[in-house]
Amino acid sequence: MKNIICCIGMFLLTTFTCMAQLPDYTKYKEKIYIHTSHVFFQPGQDVFFKLYLVNAQDQKPGVLSKVVFVEVLDPSGNVAKKLTYEVTDGFTQGSYTFEDNAPGGIYKLRAYTTWMRNEKDSSFFVKELTLQKVIAPRVLMKLDFPKKGYGPGDEVIADYSVRNLSDQPIGNYQAEYKVSLGGKMVRTEQLTTNAEGKAQLKFRLPDTLNTTDGLLNVTIDYDAYKEAISRSIPIVLNKIDLQLLPEGGSLVAGLTGNIAFRAINEHSKPVDIKGEVWDDAGNKVAAFESYYAGMGKFPFTPAAGKNYKVKIISPLHIAQQYAFPAFTTDGVVMNFVKTGEKLLLHIAANSAEELTLAGQTKGVVYTVKDLSVKKGRQIVEIDQTLFPAGIARFTLSRKNGLPLAERLVFLNKHNTLQVKISTDKSQYLPREKVVLTLKTTDSNGTPLPSNLSLAVMDDKLWSYADDKQDHILSWLLMSSELSGKIEEPLFYFKQDEPKAGPALDLVMLTHGYRYFNYLPELQGTPTLKYLPDEGYVISGNITNQQQQPMKATVFLVNMAAKNKALQMNTTEDGEFFFAGLDPRASYYLIAKAAGRKGNVNINIEQNGIDNNRIRARKLLAEEVSFKEYAGIRPAAQQQEYARATKIIQRENDSLMHPFGNNKALDEVVVVGYGAQKKEVRTGSVVMVVANDIQLQPNVQTALQGAVAGLQVMRQANPADNRQFVIRGNASLTGNNQPLFIIDGVAFEGMLESLNPNDIESIEVFKDGMALALFGSRAANGVILISTKKTGGRIRLGLNKANYYNTKYVPGVSNQYSVVRMFYAPQYASTETTMRDDFRETIYWNPVVQTDKDGNATLEFYNSDAATTFRAVAEGIAWNGKPGRAEATWSAKNALQIDAKIPPYLTVGDRALVPLVLKNNGTSSLELGISLELPAQLSAGQYDKKVVLVPASSRQVLIPLEAIGPAHGNIKFTVNGATGTETLSLPITATEKGFPVFNTFSGDKSATHSFYLGAPVTGSLKTELQVFATLEGQLLDGIASMLKEPYGCFEQTSSTTYPNIFILKYLRESGNSNPEVVAKAMKYIEAGYKKLISFETSERGFEWFGHAPAHEALTAYGLLEFTDMQAFINVDKEMLARTKAFLLGRRDGKGGFKLASGGYDRFASVPNAVANPYIVYALTQAGIGKEIQQEYDTAVQRALASADAYQMGLMALAASNMKNSNDYQHLMQALKTSYEKNNFAATTTVVNSRDASLRVESLALYAMALLRDQHPDMTTITFVISKILSGKTYYGYGSTQGTILALNAIVEYMKLKERAAAAGAIDFEANARKVAAGNDFASLLKPGANTFSVHYSNDKTGVPYNLQLSYYTMQPPNSDKADLRISTSLADTRTRTGETVRMKISVKNEKDILQPMSIAKIGIPAGLSLQPWQLRELKEKEAVAYYEIFDNYLVLYWMGFSRHETKTVNLDLKADVPGTYKAKASNCYLYYTPEYKNWNEGTEVTILP
């Protein structure tokens, strides 16, 4: 009891402390929810979404944050794209396009505001999306296990339901189910559905069960299709974590209380159990059983002096015993009971005591009761109506505030927004208009105007996806406030589920509360770390002539808004910011020094919507007062005149200076060229306004006569501009022309081309006022013209340089992500000659507003699919109540035609495409069938004439063979007496065999001999390039790295880094290539945004952003971020954190502490390599003295090792440290090793070997040679040539090899100017001349071939690169591959609807630890990967993650132990009959992709 009370007390203390210290956050905490147009997509499709941003206390629209961020995470967890949206009225809409070549897998949308970042990212909203090409079933099925967790001898129960595409249950219908264990079928049975289309399957597991690998597959023949659904059986064997939790947190001897429990397996999945409690005398004193999802509760009365233990009796053979919760001899026990609408608290106590009961929801206290508790049991009734819908937290405390017990209770679950969807029909025709009505009310039926979003989709794929993620009710009211993952959260809000209510109460008993989940560094602190984004921010600092910060007053003038400006008084650091601005507007910044003279410089740091460092630091520290000034409307005689004129109100201004002192400012007119107090200038200024100008033929005429004392004189030369003279102004030089200022830009003379209609106003300044305001250039007066259109850049000239300065800040209109508009066609008729509209989402409307009566009506059209459509509406009422609803209807034609096409075919595949015809009419149909195919596809014989009786269907199998690569649409045309229907569906066929790539590179004359191993006819291609420019060569290097699957921090970093080299080279060489610069900048900016997302909670970086951080990888990131600073704004605080993290890892012994987990859990990167790499990176970042010990140690160890890679790193580090003695020693050792052809190295920071290791070592040596005061260009040239000759299809070895090679090449080219005329280059293939840019595959032959290169001047040779690619039926295995792969199918012949087990084994052949590894598995076209099973692979950690590229499944592992074999079993679903052969499978180490082991593709025959 003591421990329990202490835990509760600490929790409450922390919570109340945080609430006291962070009152604004507790009041304005935010939540986000996203409603998407679907959850299952295919490459090339768009996901549309609506984001709701609400105040967490009441779900009303959020009022603080104006910007929200949505990150799209790819299957590896990498941020594929970061989207930024402006929030208005608590919502925004967004979209994301999955590119055609996007890898399949599980993507996530992660949404948050900067304000929400004060809490851990568990408070962010995350939604999973699946990207995969699948064949959706033609019946709508569900299969689930109501009980979670079975063991040996247990009876398994499964719930099965089925509907047809007309949304009708398939009742009283037979189906078949099969049970497989360990990949072997053990049972086959028949089932019959009831009238509602449901059936409950029962079967018993064997007593000798020894595997958790179980599969249930149900098949049904219906409407000429054979469809199937399968799920893994939740088997548990001796791995259960059982948590026992007393209700309220307290258990007292002699008092009966409830003990809740929750059981999960090793993958954190719920397990339903039965258990017993035994005392220390061997007596069973209690029994218990799960109610739902491994949760339950049972009453128990502990006896003083007794000890208890808990056993699980089901599933069987669970040997572990579990500890019983501790209990005390004194205290109170609480138990909540719901009886109808009443909430009753039962309190049991063993002594009388005065207590307080407090009930709160989301930090707001709704009830407090003082209780005089007596010994024994008593009941307290609580008024539920006081509380909003959601989780209430009840705390029972002593009068001194010490909490005794606490309980979460979910209240008023039905007091939410009630949404009803209705349509004008229940059944439609394809392409027919649907009229849909939404009705929103409260639980009493009172209309509630609401803001909703609506998605309408084809129910086939929606049902297949079987999405069980949070919806708007479960997230906003439950999951967002509880610790841990809630399994199937939407279950607890099903209105037709009798177990939902009691199960929801068990969730309250077994999950911790986390309404506030602050970052660790904010616990117990008085400040926040992040502020709400106010949108567009302009910030910077004010400096003097010596670029030192200076205190100043800064004004921001909006060039479009009338009578409005902002003022900020800076501190001594000179930093300023203005937030909440309009990104489409243009602004002037005006800065005045505070109490000192001298030049004032305005430096812009940010002009955009990113989180602003200056604003956050200053507001959090409360260092600045910030206020808005509203202008005073001018008097009638002083009309508002120029768009560039804004009014700033301030008091007690001096008449001597435009801005007076620091304390106040009178009404001031701010113009482009300067500023003047209105009262002072009135007598010296004449104004001509727009109405007086527009009627005149030109400006000169308008001014002539309108301004007293202004003379307009024509010059002797009619071509010259007219002369303007202001009376009283004269010049000894004869130049009496006034100064013209047009929109702030000074001109020497009037512009004849100025259109009077473009002018807003003209002011003429004369007497001494012009000189006082505008300086010596205005000695002859000033004519100031303000136009109506003032876009573009404005130059400013200032006479008061010793007092103030101004700066024009253009608006930035592309700050927010672009939202695509959903396309919803409108059909004039339901009749069509072509059925090609098979969109999964047929309608999406992100903003549906119901009126005061709670009604909204929408219209849209069905697609061509004969199917059930499902509408899903979600939203929030004006009073903050969330709600949702779903509705279905169907569409069918008199004649329906449908076909299943495999998503991918391989050349040689022979499919039997099932074309299904259905007659929904009342008379027989005689139909003719014809076919139109893309090139390279051929059709066999099929029935071209069929007869369909009424209410019948018929399947016609159409033989289809892929005779070559193809891409296009297959068209099925069916003719009958009632008309013609044409169905158009996409189809793709890819090349067969093993892909082979040969690459030859260099910059010297050479002859390359190579062998072609029987290429598949037509597959051989050549690409010969000559790189006349360095940037072209660098771009080619980047492209090489993008040809294989990628996505981690290192890969993203390495494909970004070369762009920095490109820009450095172009800048330092003086070359100009705008197209390349633009492309490089785009890659750098995108790469930077991705890279910073991999920062871990420890402030370092890791391959996928998970703790623990990887020290060597963090060092690599530091290198790149340091170099990036020259081209983009890099977060300085992030750089400081990264340096601090690495310095904090020093072990005090001259090395660095390396994390034992993460990527290096197999210690694949030894300390001997990681330490010098980190030292090298830190010295590159400018750190020296702080790591002197680590540097000295690394130098000594590198020299002692004679390892070329380590010595290369430390030679560069020595150069950075300016230690010439160490540098010379290391360079001499490297030279000796190089000259003896013994340039050996053990490994690199990414565990590179062989070719990659050689390239990395040579590149470091070349860069070190280039650091010498007198570089040995001869040696450097030879080293660079070796690097160039090492290029392969994958780049220069690994990604690290490529990055170092490109770095070395750039440094080399800085010293060696490429000659304009490099001499002629001759190429020959098999003694026949060839030219760059031409494909010469026809000159090559199977077997031996040669490729020759001859330079007329080898000293100035430009690099070349030849790439050969082809397919062969002979596997090109590498002898240097460390991994071996095998793939096999349990059955090579199967039937449609069955599952086929594919076994994948990858073995580490070596007695060494292996780093990150990849297997690419070819899948036969007629078989389908099951999304639910792929998800389970990741959940069970069988793989790190997976991706799907075309018809390859790509599996990733973080590493292999010595001689380890990893096995993955896939149950592939047979969808389309035919004979298929998969593409060849292969495996390789992530950093040596050139060393692959191949396995021939598996073959299967699928019978109809």
TrEMBL record:
Residues 1-20 form the signal peptide. CDD domains: A2M_like. The keyword Transport applies. It is found in: Cell outer membrane. Residues 841-931 form the Alpha-2-macroglobulin domain. NCBIfam families: SusC_RagA_signa. This is TonB-dependent receptor plug domain-containing protein. It comes from Chitinophaga hostae.
